[in-house]
């Protein structure tokens, strides 16, 4: 399927959890693991969400409990200075409240200044050093 599918927030949460598990463990979760991972008391609710994801073309399911495959939709990213991402907590596999914008300092001079300023002001010295090293590797100018 090459069309972009539209998901509810709960369906997107399940899809993100499946992707997280595949990236972390190398295989998809079971329905019971999905229910637990999204704080759902009922495995039938998790199963219903999976069925909706199949109908929307976001996943394919096989016969075994772990036979879940995320379908790439092939949507081209929109050009611009930033991309919007869902931030996933590495410990839980759940989406963090809110959204995050990823600055692209190699395409946006204002982002470079903002990042250098943040590095100067943050009390987290390790983060400040990481930001400065990263910007140095990008070889971007700072005024």
TrEMBL record:
Gene3D superfamilies with a match to the protein in the record: Winged helix-like DNA-binding domain superfamily/Winged helix DNA-binding domain
UniProt-listed InterPro entries: LexA_DNA-bd_dom, WH-like_DNA-bd_sf, WH_DNA-bd_sf
Protein name: LexA repressor DNA-binding domain-containing protein
Any Pfam family the entry gives: LexA_DNA_bind
Organism: Paenibacillus glucanolyticus
Domain LexA repressor DNA-binding: 7-61
GO annotation (BP), single: proteolysis
GO molecular function, one term: serine-type endopeptidase activity
